[in-house]
Fold each of these.
Amino acid sequence: MQKPGGKVYLIGAGPGAADLITVRGARLLAQAEVVLHDALVTPEMLALCPQAVKISVGKRSGQRSAAQSQISQQILECAQHYSLVVRLKGGDPMLFGRADEELTAMEQAGIEYAIVPGITTAVAAAASACQPLTKRGIARSVAFFTSSTAPGETSDTRIPECDTLIQYMGGKEAALTAQRLLASGYQPDLPVVVIENCSRPNERILRLQLKELEDGLSDREGPVLVMIGEAMRSRFGQT
Amino acid sequence: MQKPGGKVYLIGAGPGAADLITVRGARLLAQAEVVLHDALVTPEMLALCPQAVKISVGKRSGQRSAAQSQISQQILECAQHYSLVVRLKGGDPMLFGRADEELTAMEQAGIEYAIVPGITTAVAAAASACQPLTKRGIARSVAFFTSSTAPGETSDTRIPECDTLIQYMGGKEAALTAQRLLASGYQPDLPVVVIENCSRPNERILRLQLKELEDGLSDREGPVLVMIGEAMRSRFGQT
């Protein structure tokens, strides 16, 4: 196969705020001819590439969205027509970003690519809440996990064993996580921090206890991250 | 207590490359009057703040270094004399960054602060190695952990249970991790990716199997990250 001329940059946009992308990512966005972006990428972020053709290949929980194979196909088509293509994903592309499918498609088509990491939501949420994920003598390991609702995968994910637990896309699934943790002996008053719309103007931070999480999170609209563990205990006495 | 005038920004520098800091972090560095930085922060990164007084408060594994309480004290002193203080840490400050001690010290002294997240080494290493940390049907959870060699803490950390395991500062401790995983039934041919000096000009990527990691990593000089799990299996047939 003849090698197409375009190079694809798989870039992490970070949690949402336009200045939480990396300097490298922002520079490439400003040079891109075309940007294929997720629905969760903010308009402020897309303002960094006014010159580019923008294609939403949005996937968002609970909404109809393009199948992953279609997205990969769109990337390949762009690489045939443009020399600098950006595939912009929320957070970091290598953590819950379905990068494997897109990398495999590009490799099979012989397309040159590079990956630019992004701020994954957990560390931005830790910064917003001023709660370190690790803490000397308290928390030395952190698990990042998600519950899958994809066809063909069971949703009864085992909960990882780590000092700090971070559930991505945890809005609907957090109650089940809390139930499982309580059933396996976790303390009912274990601190929990929930972040909605991390780093955005409508960011909300909720502090509660594990036993309260069991009842579920109502009234959540944006992307939600749930952080559980002793490291989440407030230094100011709440929770 | 009278509130001092200075504001302190606790900023994640990311893995090392100067353009893998966030746009927000770079902007604040360019405005800082004083920058207190770790030994692992690169000269290229410090070139982003030519105007600032630079103070190395370096801690580096195996070298003599300032005690954490001294570092916190230096931050407080800087906040009394300067209006814009940056505390620059490698990676992300909230993950294995000892942020808790520094935040507590600032809160007790009534000093205003904000936290700017950074690219944690694991996602930069995943980008360098082109190995997603999560993979559909293969890896849905990722643990970040470290073995402590701090006084008063035992080094016999239990290994977290997750699909992908990432050991930070894993140069010396990785052999022990491999021994424990093999003893608890992990497959000897499980893929391992080791990254040294991630994102820097002298970056090295080593691919091996869990049974080889048991013999230890010789000849490592820079900071080392060890990634273990089925998600590390190469798409090109190695390992």
Amino acid sequence: MTAGAGDSYVRLVERFRRLAHFRDAEAILYWDRAVMMPPGAGEARAAQLAALDRVRHKILAGEETGALIEAAGAGDELGPWEAANLREMRHAWRHATAIDEALSAALVTAGARCEMVWREARANCDFETVRAEFAKLLKLVREAALAKAAALGLDPYDALLDAHDPGLDRAAIDPLFAELSDFLPPLLERVLARQTAEKGIPTPGGPIPAERQRALGLRIMDVMGIDSAWARLDTSAHPFCGGTPEDIRITTRFDERDFASGLFAVVHEAGHALYERGLPEKWRDQPVGAACGTSVHESQSLLMEMMVGRSRAFAQFAAPLFREVLGVAGPAWEADALYGAFTRIEAGLVRVEADEVSYPLHVILRYQLEAAMVAGTLEAADLPGAWNEGMERLLGRVPSHDGEGCLQDIHWYQGAFGYFPAYAIGAALAAQFFAAAIRADPEIEPAIGRGDLTRLSAWLADNVRAKASFATPRELVIAATGKPLDATDLRRHLEARYLEGAT
Amino acid sequence: MTAGAGDSYVRLVERFRRLAHFRDAEAILYWDRAVMMPPGAGEARAAQLAALDRVRHKILAGEETGALIEAAGAGDELGPWEAANLREMRHAWRHATAIDEALSAALVTAGARCEMVWREARANCDFETVRAEFAKLLKLVREAALAKAAALGLDPYDALLDAHDPGLDRAAIDPLFAELSDFLPPLLERVLARQTAEKGIPTPGGPIPAERQRALGLRIMDVMGIDSAWARLDTSAHPFCGGTPEDIRITTRFDERDFASGLFAVVHEAGHALYERGLPEKWRDQPVGAACGTSVHESQSLLMEMMVGRSRAFAQFAAPLFREVLGVAGPAWEADALYGAFTRIEAGLVRVEADEVSYPLHVILRYQLEAAMVAGTLEAADLPGAWNEGMERLLGRVPSHDGEGCLQDIHWYQGAFGYFPAYAIGAALAAQFFAAAIRADPEIEPAIGRGDLTRLSAWLADNVRAKASFATPRELVIAATGKPLDATDLRRHLEARYLEGAT
């Protein structure tokens, strides 16, 4: 190693460590805002977060960082993890510097303004309210995508994808999504018909007090290996997993009439939590020690929610626990009835309430529309029509108004494009990782039926969590499952569960 | 106004605004650490706070800040609030730059290490455990005091006082504390004798569930004018008031056998909260908009706790509320019995449990000892002996071990010197402000008896809260009460309450 390159690398490590401290502080402040903050403090908190973010951006995008990355060279003389760390540093730096400050500031301002108007539009259920603001924001998003494309040598939409999932591009997404849009609609139809024929299964009701649901959430977290020495469970309007690996903050919300909704939010977020917690401590504050992109992150939460939490094996283990902790009894609280309730298919209009069969179709619609908006082939004004047409094509239903249509998600109206695909890729990956895990250790599934997740956790720890960002997402998936991302395992899983009633 | 001076001032305002955002973010992270954070996250949180603190120090103590302050001149051509703001900026900058970075870092390290050993020593009740570490820390504290003295042109101990209370010095403290040590010991003796003769008053007992106590705390906060739109109540090991003016975080702890302890912690911290909340919004992020030093801050909490909360008038108003919210009844819950319990004198060995008659004596002992330690006339090794001798002289009691003696407070073992006097000055000022308030508006006291604190709040808002740091603490006290700080009003208050049973 030349002294200069090594020196530069060491200084970069120090720089990214500082950056991590700020990112972690922000994570707690975001959690606090969603969970604890009195309503009157919104503006002050925004100013605090902006101040921290500005420092973080200055550290990351500063000229000195670029110079150090250049001086550190290709990292050829570094060890393999160090070289991967340098690669991730370069990735972060390139994204941070790809857009100039004026455009970046314009995006933040336009995004904040559009989000505000979107809230009004959504309450009105009328896209027209937000059309003009959204058109302005979309123009800036396109500019940013073009700037990123130029800086990174990528197609504009791929450049947006690359920020969340290094290396992910439409060439990888398109065949997956084509396969999903091919087999999911007929599958959905068959499952719905089958369900109609199976009337009369008792469904677990309520009211179940929030305090009991919270106690159950904590018990399930414990079963999953989450410890109160490093994690909390609280409530917020939208469930999320925040905080940092040594200070995990899981949130959910409790509906007294529908305990499953709060519970599966906990299981889902706990999947994210276990990934964060399992990242290698040695690389804790470095880019290579971070999760391997958004899609893999989502795979970890969906694996816990869909493959484990909604499985027949888990219902068998959990039914007596539910009865004990929730203080309930009766036929609706037997394992079979619970499994039936947890795997009920609705095929509704709203993504966040969607079941696992229809969910990817919601995402595919968003992907098609946002790719077209970034490419300039779909204008803001034409969004509602395109949305409704797509819903009919993919799910066979048309929203009765924009509130349950193109206004339902906040993402676009904040300026977030290129994020949606991760939700469906994560679903496919969840099935792919789980299939690989049970191939490697056939005892995993019987153990789940006994409430023992340690065997599954061991496989995930070795093959996903401990790898962090050492490899790219594509390399990670191949190493862990023996093949690149595809839809085969998701298809098998859905057919087995919903047509054969097997898992 | 010359363009250069005005320009520099405007840039300073921007700089201190950024600084305030960091300080506010840190305030929430400190609150979170004490109230929410899982135990395993201590080290990570310390790293986050250190990173933020480093940025803040860099902004404040950076060369550019000094140059801007110099260029802004004496502020003669600024408006009066702007000039006061510049004065406060200079004060903050001078303190931040008075100690060089190496000494500052050595103090932080030695303080953290000594605090750790202190925890062990306190558990052992043996000063010897911490003696060596404390001697090292004390040496650094003396160096820092000398460096500050040289930079600020003050006596070394006065330089430490000046950081918390601009302009406060021993020349102001000594006569006050002399008067207090003169009249308090005989007063204490008379009150204890009187109490012994008054046996048989029923005392409110328990257990009272924490949830009910919390409900009472929230009701009392409401009575005091504290709104859940900008404030929270939570629990922590040591009560405090944290957060920011738009995001107040009050904490207390609930003892099921002693509801008064948790309640008066709320009332005390609510006094701090009302001060913070009442600071002028226009100057929100500027030094002149901050509280007028530690002593005045403590006066606002003690005024609410001692003058209002433990008064006969308040007990009369609150007794039915207590019975309703706590679900209690009986003779111990009548106003007179409650008042008796709230004004019971113990004269114990521990400061944080002390009543208002003996409290200032605890503080005076600490003041005498810390001034001697900074001056070099008292060595670390001689602290336990000097402590026990002082306790006997001032309170007539000797600790049976160092745990209830010189190890009871954390301050010195963290390297905090010059902070203690504010506790007793605050007590004197609380009485002085309250006396001025009821002179100005004789309806204040009858209103308190009806649970109406708005008249008192109006006087405090005009004379203390809205003034922020426009004047120095000494000027503020004279303007509000017509005289400099003295012990007359505290003496009158204590004699009236404890000898005449009048208030």
Amino acid sequence: MTAATPEASHTTDTVEELRQRTRDFIRGTVLPAEPAPGERLDQATRDRLQQAAKDAGVFAPHVPVEYGGQGVPIQWWSQIFQEAGYSPIGPSVLNCMAPDEGNMHMLNLVATDEQKRRYLTTLASGQVRSCFAMTEPHPGAGSDPDALLTSARREGDQWVINGHKRFISGAVGAGFAIVMARTEGTDDTPAGATMFLVDMDNPGIRVGEHIHTIDRAMAGGHPHVYFEDCTVSSEAVLGEVGQGFRYAQVRLGPARLTHCMRWLGLARRSLDIALDRSERRTVFGAELKSLGLAQELIAQCEIDIETSDAIIAKTGALLASDPRAGSAMSSIAKVHCSEAIFRVVDRAIQICGGDGVSDGLPLAQYAAEVRGFRIYDGSNETHKWAIARRASSRRRKTVDAGAPYQADAVVRDTESH
Amino acid sequence: MTAATPEASHTTDTVEELRQRTRDFIRGTVLPAEPAPGERLDQATRDRLQQAAKDAGVFAPHVPVEYGGQGVPIQWWSQIFQEAGYSPIGPSVLNCMAPDEGNMHMLNLVATDEQKRRYLTTLASGQVRSCFAMTEPHPGAGSDPDALLTSARREGDQWVINGHKRFISGAVGAGFAIVMARTEGTDDTPAGATMFLVDMDNPGIRVGEHIHTIDRAMAGGHPHVYFEDCTVSSEAVLGEVGQGFRYAQVRLGPARLTHCMRWLGLARRSLDIALDRSERRTVFGAELKSLGLAQELIAQCEIDIETSDAIIAKTGALLASDPRAGSAMSSIAKVHCSEAIFRVVDRAIQICGGDGVSDGLPLAQYAAEVRGFRIYDGSNETHKWAIARRASSRRRKTVDAGAPYQADAVVRDTESH
Amino acid sequence: MTAATPEASHTTDTVEELRQRTRDFIRGTVLPAEPAPGERLDQATRDRLQQAAKDAGVFAPHVPVEYGGQGVPIQWWSQIFQEAGYSPIGPSVLNCMAPDEGNMHMLNLVATDEQKRRYLTTLASGQVRSCFAMTEPHPGAGSDPDALLTSARREGDQWVINGHKRFISGAVGAGFAIVMARTEGTDDTPAGATMFLVDMDNPGIRVGEHIHTIDRAMAGGHPHVYFEDCTVSSEAVLGEVGQGFRYAQVRLGPARLTHCMRWLGLARRSLDIALDRSERRTVFGAELKSLGLAQELIAQCEIDIETSDAIIAKTGALLASDPRAGSAMSSIAKVHCSEAIFRVVDRAIQICGGDGVSDGLPLAQYAAEVRGFRIYDGSNETHKWAIARRASSRRRKTVDAGAPYQADAVVRDTESH
Amino acid sequence: MTAATPEASHTTDTVEELRQRTRDFIRGTVLPAEPAPGERLDQATRDRLQQAAKDAGVFAPHVPVEYGGQGVPIQWWSQIFQEAGYSPIGPSVLNCMAPDEGNMHMLNLVATDEQKRRYLTTLASGQVRSCFAMTEPHPGAGSDPDALLTSARREGDQWVINGHKRFISGAVGAGFAIVMARTEGTDDTPAGATMFLVDMDNPGIRVGEHIHTIDRAMAGGHPHVYFEDCTVSSEAVLGEVGQGFRYAQVRLGPARLTHCMRWLGLARRSLDIALDRSERRTVFGAELKSLGLAQELIAQCEIDIETSDAIIAKTGALLASDPRAGSAMSSIAKVHCSEAIFRVVDRAIQICGGDGVSDGLPLAQYAAEVRGFRIYDGSNETHKWAIARRASSRRRKTVDAGAPYQADAVVRDTESH
């Protein structure tokens, strides 16, 4: 979906028009239907709101027009996704929520026509949800995907998958899973990981213990999922055998960035709440908004929001023009945005005082929604490690190519100290 | 209780012995009885554990021996309270939890013998809980106590209290409240605020709407409390009429500091959990504890914990020797500790990854417990404002007393730029 | 110069080509000619390098082609200016250094043809330098421009300027000054501030005491400048009488942003030095670059650099399309970049250890160069104040226009706490 | 000197009296004699002020009375050293400056009577200065002392030292050096490092190239020092052969902490300058000190200063009672204080605006003085590494001794998500 389809020849103007329409829809239709803090969106409301989004022409902004979406290219997703994320349920309503959004992205890039017909169509329309089964309990695949333990072995024309996954967001009630499993090499295919499309009613899949996390926006929870001699046909292979790790990278760069977009919308919401509060409160005889220590908090929020918006835009443009460079940049965007967004929500709580940590306002729940983002999709520490290594490598290549080494200390001894 | 009573002639050695005993009790007896994250301590378990604490000779460390406590002077509370706080239910079990602990402190300093007999005895023994009714809905008393709206007017030998309080921690199920109300001056008494001891079964008190906050350690919640022609006798006045604001300061300095102590214990617990995690996990083929980006987090935790411990010790010693200076210093301790403790818990979550934001570990709940401390007892912004003004005032007095003013820029123009 | 002139019809490709040429010139020609840390660029070397820049077709990137520059529109300055700033003397060599660059920008927008002929031509070609005389000693114009004390009064067809300026960067050796002075209103002109073009050899101007600051890159220092019955003709008025404050804003938005661009180049240089160091050093038996605590520093540098680059790009695009919004955004860019750039240089010093604080490496001098940027062009505190007020105002207007106020705490009391 | 000598039976009261006397001396006598920012203290002024300090009874606070000092035990040094450090030349004047102060400390603990007579007496009295020759150029001893390359070999009754040191603070003009060299083991002595007392007029010592660093308070610079067949007698061995690394630890714990003490004094000075500035400046019609964004800076300074003071006090007490634990704690104190002190000076600069980065005020020079402290005496990164490893080790031992491992995530699956 990084490339605009013919039908969706968007321009800055049409995207701005869609952004405004999305904004009106979210604020006018979705906000009044939000569940209370700590509660989840029920299915009936979700269905009703999705229909309304379709009617308003704002459903599935990132999905090609042929699959019922708005066909917006990736470099313009941010404006729209931020509007969606202004409500914690907005992305679900617009069907641009993780993990479905990333799965749609990958299916569009990698799936066969038959797979698209079967999986992408229903997913894009909101008829089913999906999950992405990669993470495993220690010592399996986590921060380090190479530690993958789940395996798939060929048996004739079939594959038999065995393994234990956890933190499989959205698995409860999902229609299908994209499963990452280790596969052996053959004469034709390399050893490595392979992705499989597996229906959740496959008898070899069992959704196990739920993991109760502090977020509430994710439909389908984050449970354990067990694969026990889960047998699928060769049509279940997504893309090529042995290319799973490569596809995972293709998926993760944009998926990481759309998290930034959606949660930046929630940061804007949080700041609006705090600004409303500081507008009408007086303390020590002064308007709260006029007190310098509140202004410090507000200004820092603005800086965090605008720099996040800017690094997202830069990364989105790169993902459109140079996916590999864009994926590298997405590490930087992910670390900056996940920390900046958390700070914004945290400061908004501070401005709202006791109400900020109560469910009288939704801010404490927003903090719970965004906290995990510093951990998910590669912990920030893992990303910083990767960022540093890429920087070192880039510079080393420059020096190897002839740029002068600049770190030799010059001895300058012409006079007394 | 800042002064040790004759019976409790503690030394460094006896306090260290009590600390060790408290540590053994908390880790051996209390930890195994902790409720699951998000759950509350039930009354039966609390009663059982309080009895065990009495049997172990560790109950009510800060309470004079004559009231059944251990009679530890304030400069040594920190060691003991940190051990108590290692469990989120530890302070309740040892009866050194807010708001009871601060109320005991104030009753001991201000109450009449009869009031002590009636209120302090039962409170110190754990038979009843209490609350402190000061905070009001906007635009009443909050960060700015002067905005107090609740009033008490004399009617003959009685007082009639009217007003609306909120965030009254511990009110549900409390035996009595210490109520702050505005009183008019008379020939004998100044206008200002006055404190009253009011039984919670007084028909003029109504515990109203609960406020659902993210913490769970506080028995009795944080509800609204309404005073509607609540009538009490003159024996209900705590201390002197018109001195309420002064007593509130007497209460708040130590109360603020004991929050630091208890929650620093929880920060130590959080770090222990993270250290345990990093000890046994491997990632990218290395022990997690050996990775520099984890070591950065661990080292910052250590620094936060030790500097918090140090500023608490400094403030506690000052409160013992010079309560006014100690109260000023408690603003600094409060801001530093509340932020440092939050950072420690937040980093521990980060080290524990997905489990950190799930209820598989208690860390996310710990973060919820300590988040409010940056807001309660005067928001950190309010304290920073006070800290800055005190610094300016201190320096101005020094200059007024003859110290040279040092901020005139000297013009040094002897040569070219 | 925000609009490209006809002759300079740049595209992304031509700008990229110019960027590469500038990069080659700076690294191949300018770096080898840099003075030692703490020393200044001498005039002869500057002249030689400026000629070389002209020969290489990289001189004055922001200047219209008709005045001898490369005619790059403002939204593309950043790529070029960052390459220039990779050397602390690069901007002087390319004639895109403050305050000349901002003065050229303003002259192009506001000056008469005759003024352009006389002042812009020589300035753009590097024949003369200039200064911008706005800041005054306390209690005059500083963070608060409205406090302007320097005055200009009409005497027939002339103006007589009196006042005392300081921190007038570049004044020593400048050919002319743009002077901000308070003027009274007449029937035709409003009261306010007016800008004047004054030759530095006017007998009424006296360059006074130098102010020795820690930076070295600014030719012409930061001296006091005195105006003593300094008489100029009416042709000296720049733009319209009474519009000085408005023009100052026109100048300051882009001027602030070009500081960000140039110094971001120096931040990249600093990181390169640190990366070189960490590439070849071993400590405790490991390569420095492989140690997590060094990687933390490197990754934070990358994040600071890329987010700075991104917010500059966003602001530059806004300045081109909507100067008023761009000027507001430039406050955010200025605060973020000035702090991020300082942090990058500071971390680079840390990575280089003792050499980092010696003149064996240029890093300590780089830190001195960039430190002032948190103070110049409006202190960061002043900008944060403005940022917060704009945020409050924006939100208030949204609410006034009908958006729901979101900060009323909802009372949700359906069950026990 | 950690133990008070009989003659110097200090109490809290006598130390407070000495602190007040030191304060009066520094502010009344030393401040007026300070050199301009960037200049150094000349020898004549130093001699005059040292005599005045002796006359005032404040000279050498840490030195035993028998050597002409005030005999203050280490747990009380902080109060006195902070007063000394209020002036950048104060520690030199009171003869409690690095590296002499640490050398005196070690000589007192380790030297023979004859060595004390010859070296400690003259050093303590201010007659000579000294240096500590440990650090070497890469890849020798730096952050990692084990990398020591300088060697000493026995030749009969003599030792011959060869090696290259650098950053040898105070070497220019010093009377003697304490030299760290690698020595081979014998039947009687272990292999390892050994310390030697070497007169600087030994023909085998050559003070080489100076290293121009940004600080100015250190008399004697930070030059390279070469040992070329430098021959000394066996009386030159300080302590026991092969124990050099152990003694270095003995020296470094307190030496690190006294840096904290002295520079905390300079931080207090910086804040005083900023408070003076904010007291008398008005901006935007308000007193600077009343603006919240200045109050934020001031409050953060107070918090940094008081927490630094507190962790120093804690560490000093530990060094007196348990030197090994104190040395470990000194890593934490060093990291916290070096960063906090730098922040205080940096914020003071910010409050003073343009004057802050000029030599019209001394703040920019103060920033240069304290910047190196994050690098010297073990870089903060090295200390954080050590702090993290100690924390991991402490916790592992606790768990090994029977404490329950707390990081197993509990599966709590009793209901739907």
Amino acid sequence: MNLMKIAHVPPVVVEVSASVADAVNAMVSNKVGAVAVVENDVLRGIISERDVVKKVVHAGRAASQTRVADVMTTEVESIVEDTPPSEALQIMIDGYFRHLPIVDGKGKVLGILSIRNFLQNRVEELEDSINSITSYYAADGAGG
Amino acid sequence: MNLMKIAHVPPVVVEVSASVADAVNAMVSNKVGAVAVVENDVLRGIISERDVVKKVVHAGRAASQTRVADVMTTEVESIVEDTPPSEALQIMIDGYFRHLPIVDGKGKVLGILSIRNFLQNRVEELEDSINSITSYYAADGAGG
């Protein structure tokens, strides 16, 4: 499995100076549940539908008057392109993260993994493994 | 796999007469991404974080002045308790649904499945299968 193949590439990003309304526009037009927040191309945070619902709508703030910098999650875990997929999945499961940015050595965002796509891909991969294991042993049994 | 065991039970519900602000309160306090909308206990729709972001925030509406009935998804697929899990998962994958209500014969909501929990459970189940298949054949090879 190649992480970049199941990630959203190119990533949907907004500048750290953007408003929540800008981030919501980016989410809606790209049909994604979270966007990376960057400053000079470098990852500074992530803002998700959940952040908007909880920290803006629930808090009674106006999206156009609120800066993403004020509601984004700043303690963002990220991975690099060659992080082992099993490690990336474990980070998402343990942290209960729905999204995980993939960055390069300079912190530039290359893509964003969503746990939904990741898990769906993993289910298909495991089903394929089971099929090949069982057909291998079936062939072995028939032939030997 | 028992669907009710991986579903959110009891389900988080709001009345069809509720405002979006009420639905958002229910989402935030229960830490769920969607709530079922009911009328006399019967499923009428579902409203998700995505609906709030897209149809309320992005549309420039005020959550307290908007009724869930006006922004909920009304064409909701649902399943019953004994729907085969593989069928339930396929419905969610094909329809790209993140949430799927489980109802009884009268349309009363019993629980809400989230695709994330479902897929995570399926990954664990498939990994267990692979382990038992390989250890079965390993034992067979060693003994026979």
